[in-house]
Amino acid sequence: MSDRTEIVSQRLRLVALDRELAEMQLNDRPAFFAALGVEREPSWPPELMDESAMTWNRDQLAAHPGDAGWYSWVYVSPIMNRLLGIGGFQGAPSAEGEVEIGYSMLVSYREQGLATEAVNALMGWAYGHEHVKRVIARTRSDRNPSHRVLEKAGFKQVSTHMDPEEGFEVTLWSHNRAQRAA
User: Fold this and answer.
1) Which of 15, 16, 100, 130 could in theory staple to 5 by disulfide, Cβ–Cβ 3.0 to 4.6 A?
2) Nearest to 70 by CA among 34, 35, 94
């Protein structure tokens, strides 16, 4: 594998997609799995990572090739050599030092604490950049498993509002650098 940005946590290896991996994920899935050194995953990608999301990610990395890490990361089980999920950020930090995080697990790997572990690893990576002051997330307002992931990672609910684009209520969550140190 080439020199890619990776994070290793207790049970996961997170690999930041670069332009090449993002292109393979979209157009050559066998090459994508081979480049990551993982078994073929028939149920890939997880929900929320549809073709339009993969295209957006690829296009962002093409436009900002130096920003790998500020977009998608895949979650790999080093023991099983399988992809478990995907997550990451909606781009580089804003001028105010804010980044938005998101995540999605394959159904068979949910409710095992892996999403929380991945979110914590990604926050650690983000806060490793001194200009990052706050990480935010948005979830559906109905009480879903994403709420528990964010609560366990130390996020606090900030507000709830109707999102006209999504057509449902969205909860905004926030986590700041000071919480990480606590």
Assistant:
1) 16
2) 94
The Cβ of residue 160 has, within 10 Å, a number of other Cβ atoms equal to 12
173, 136 Cβ separation under 8 angstroms? yes
How far is the CA of 15 from the CAs of 3, 20, 77, 92, in angstroms?
11, 13, 11, 17
Say which residue the tokens 């806060």 belong to: 127
Model pLDDT for residues 131-164, shown as the tens digit of each residue? 999 999 999 888 778 899 999 999 999 998 887 8
Are residues 35 and 21 in contact, defined by beta-carbon separation less than 8 angstroms?
yes
β 134-140/156-163 pair status: unpaired
What is the model's pTM?
0.92
pLDDT tens, position by position, 54-99: 999 999 999 998 999 999 999 999 999 999 999 999 999 999 999 9
Structure-token pair, residue 159: 């507000």
How far apart (Å, rounded) are the C-alpha atoms in residues 27 and 123? Answer: 29
Residue type, 81: N
